[in-house]
Write a structure and sequence with these properties.
Length: 164
């Protein structure tokens, strides 16, 4: 069985991520979406919120599961018996960071290969930080994220505004 991990911060998950998940689900027997718990990015959503959010939008893929992990990605991949790490590659600007990560992970774990998938060109410009910024300033994110994620973003922004 070919198992792949699709790791990321997913803060929040976007239509671009979902496009990559759908492509990976077509190629691999099993895809585990791995939400990184210890991201240096200080996410807007907690680990649990990001896991729940992704679970809510990948239901139509029976071979996709969602989980979170701490520590090194390759250690997690080995525990899950994955032989591939999937990453989305949108534009040349992604390349340097992805290249460094892929080669480092290969040095750390020879048996795990990073596979790059290109999301639909419609999502080339899309990333989570743009979506967060639009949501925080009250803009419409409905063309970037599914309705479940839009609702979670709206709730988060309301809670933040109520605290301020
Ligand atoms: O969505 P992101 O923020 O680009 O995902 C980055 C992520 C989570 C895949 C990367 O930071 C990661 O793998 N973190 C786990 C710690 C790790 O293994 N670091 C070494 C990577 S070379």
């Amino acid at each position: 069985m070919r198992i792949a991990i699709y790791p990321g911060t997913f803060d929040p998950v976007t239509y671009g991520h979902l496009d990559v998940i759908a492509r990976a689900a077509d190629i691999f027997d099993k895809v585990i979406v791995g939400v990184a718990e210890n991201s240096a990015k200080r996410p807007l959503f907690t680990d649990l919120e990001r896991v729940q959010m992704i679970r809510a939008v990948v239901r139509k893929h029976p071979n996709v599961s969602v989980d979170s992990f701490q520590g090194l990605l390759v250690s997690y991949a080995k525990r899950k018996k994955a032989t591939a790490i999937v990453r989305g590659l949108r534009a040349v600007s992604d390349f340097e960071y992805e290249f460094q990560m892929a080669l480092t992970n290969r040095k750390l774990a020879r048996g795990i290969t990073t596979v790059f998938l290109m999301p639909h060109e419609e999502y080339t410009y899309l990333n989570s930080s743009i979506v967060r910024e639009i949501a925080l300033f009250g803009g419409d994110v409905s063309t970037f994220v599914p309705p479940e994620v839009r609702r979670m973003l709206a709730r988060k922004v309301r809670a933040m505004n109520a605290r301020a």
